[in-house]
Amino acid sequence: IGRSTTIFAGAITLVVGIVVVAAYDQLDATLATEKAYGWLAILTGIVVLVAAIAIPSVASRHERVVDEVR
Asked: Do the Cβ atoms of 42 and 17 come closer than 8 Å?
């Protein structure tokens, strides 16, 4: 998975957690959510975002040069 995909997934998870915590009273009746799930989503989103941003992406290109025999 690419870094941009991971950042996007972490951001979406964070936003969903914030929505669940902020609108708990309205969502509890319709989605049967709990504030603990919202806080877990917020924590998970933050961890994923920090990891995706902080961990360096390592890309290496190996070029092999073959000497031609004449």
From this structure: yes
The number of residues making up the chain comes to: 70
Q: How confident is the model at residue 4 (pLDDT cuts 50, 70, 90)?
A: confident
Residue in 59, 57, 61, 40 with CA at minimum distance from that of residue 5: 57
Tokens of 17: 């957690």
pTM above 0.85, yes or no: no
End-to-end distance of the chain based on CA atoms, in angstroms?
45
30 within 8 A of 58, measured Cβ to Cβ: no
How far is it, in rounded angstroms, from Cα 68 to Cα 40? Answer: 60
Q: What is the DSSP letter of 12?
A: H
Distance CA 12, CA 17 (A): 9
